[in-house]
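Colleagues,

For the teaching module next term, I've prepared a clean inverse folding example: a structure given as tokens, and then the sequence designed for it. I'd like students to try predicting residues themselves before seeing the answer, so please don't circulate the second half yet.
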């Protein structure tokens, strides 16, 4: 939105150097560019988008995403990002809040269908909930509101009721990318409150209509360049030089960048990189893998679709065009297996879930993101730093910072907005 007046109180004098062009860095850049700041983005890779990107896969001869990304219609950070990038229509999904599921063990199918409005009467209607559960299985979720810092999902909710394995576990593992025995219960409540807690309009599943890059990074870069931001790809930050308690220089392989008074830096890099760059910074150290298995099918669908699976290895199947992509979260042990073994294991589950009949393994690609997110355990959550650092002109962004949310696109985007807003407080 070129020409939008700066937000009140924004110091529009200096340049903001944003290091890392993942969604947190891009969110910070969009907000600051809109407020009239001069922006320079330094990205170590040859492309923007970080852990949320698309690429052409030669085996499938299709453009695929590094991993399926599920969002919900109540993700207001995501919505703001898309609006500020000038691409509000990038997401697609069912008109209603519908989550079709299959149990790969028993063959049973069902569809979880929250109702419109904030009063969740759907939990009292058997056709809208998981078979074999009652309203009490869902009311267990209220315990999450009082979850302590040390509580795990399994410890907080209890695992005895049938709804745990068929509702709470898939939801928690998908959101936290950490097993229910380790995952921090406290991170789930804000997600539930902002999505399922607001009824069907806020919990419709949302997926990239075309691809993640086309939805997020590409339009953001077009908008930012149009607003005069400089985007420097293949520019890895190697060090920060500190002087008089502030960042004075940025050190790159190809030279240095001296900061004037009024200039600032937002570090929007992964936690391990931030800890190398900033002495004494405490960050989450553990990580969890996500494995995605992409298969090219013989037939295509219009739009996108999502199916949840329990009782097997595959957890979610996303379909877009003629590609079916399976997600397995908290997948460190699976990621250690050879790609072909993973494909052989998952393909029969896809055949069953999509009712494809007996089929040979089609062209496929296994993508292992070994450090997909930080391990969202109570101990690692306690290590998340805030936006501010000991240096007034240095702010942090990233899904691993202390957003109060899980490490998701929504968390990443909000951390970027927060870092941008923090600079408005810094003279
Ligand atoms: C397979 C997978 C599936 C996922 N599924 C979902 C999902 O379903 N829903 C959801 O909401 N979220 C999901 N996520 C999480 C989501 O992708 C992340 O939360 C989000 O992309 C993180 O953005 P970020 O900006 O915090 O970090 P990153 O995307 O990691 O961005 C950091 C950037 O910094 C750059 N960088 C690193 N070092 C340097 C350096 N020294 N100098 C300059 N640049 C540097 C990197 O190249 C990168 O571009 C998934 C993630 C993965 C990997």
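(Answer key — instructors only)
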């Amino acid at each position: 939105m070129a020409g939008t007046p700066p937000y009140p109180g924004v110091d529009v004098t200096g340049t903001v150097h944003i290091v890392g062009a993942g969604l947190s860095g891009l969110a910070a850049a969009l907000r600051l560019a809109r407020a009239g700041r001069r922006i320079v983005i330094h990205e170590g890779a040859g492309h923007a988008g970080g852990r949320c990107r698309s690429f052409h896969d030669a085996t499938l001869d299709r453009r695929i995403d590094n991993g399926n990304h599920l969002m919900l219609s109540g993700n207001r950070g995501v919505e703001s990002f898309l609006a500020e990038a000038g691409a509000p229509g990038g997401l697609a999904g069912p008109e209603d809040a519908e989550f079709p599921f299959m149990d790969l063990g028993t063959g049973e199918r069902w569809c979880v269908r929250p109702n419109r409005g904030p009063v969740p009467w759907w939990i009292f209607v058997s056709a809208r909930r998981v078979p074999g559960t009652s309203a009490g299985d869902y009311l267990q979720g209220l315990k999450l509101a009082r979850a302590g810092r040390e509580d795990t999902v399994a410890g907080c909710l209890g695992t005895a009721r049938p709804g745990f394995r068929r509702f709470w576990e898939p939801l928690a593992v998908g959101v936290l990318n950490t097993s229910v025995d380790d995952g921090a219960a406290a991170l789930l409540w804000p997600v539930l409150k902002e999505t399922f807690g607001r009824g069907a309009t806020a919990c419709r599943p949302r997926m990239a209509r075309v691809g993640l890059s086309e939805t997020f990074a590409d339009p953001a870069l077009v908008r930012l360049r149009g607003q005069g931001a400089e985007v420097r790809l293949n520019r890895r930050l190697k060090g920060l030089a500190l002087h008089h308690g502030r960042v004075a220089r940025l050190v790159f392989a190809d030279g240095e960048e001296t900061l004037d008074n009024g200039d600032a830096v937002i570090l929007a890099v992964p936690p391990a990189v931030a800890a190398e760059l900033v002495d004494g910074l405490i960050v989450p150290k553990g990580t969890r893998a996500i494995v995605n298995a992409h298969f090219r099918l013989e037939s295509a669908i219009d739009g996108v679709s999502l199916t949840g699976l329990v009782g097997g290895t595959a957890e979610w199947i996303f379909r877009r065009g003629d590609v079916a992509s399976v997600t397995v979260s908290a997948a460190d042990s699976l990621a250690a297996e050879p790609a072909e073994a993973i494909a052989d294991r998952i393909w029969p589950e896809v055949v069953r879930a999509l009712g494809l009949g007996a089929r040979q393994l089609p062209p496929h690609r296994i993508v292992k993101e070994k450090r997909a997110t930080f391990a969202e355990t109570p101990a690692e959550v306690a290590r998340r730093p805030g936006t501010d650092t000991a240096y007034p002109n240095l702010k942090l962004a990233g899904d691993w910072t202390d957003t109060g949310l899980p490490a998701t696109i929504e968390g990443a985007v909000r951390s970027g907005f927060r870092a941008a807003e923090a600079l408005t407080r810094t003279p």
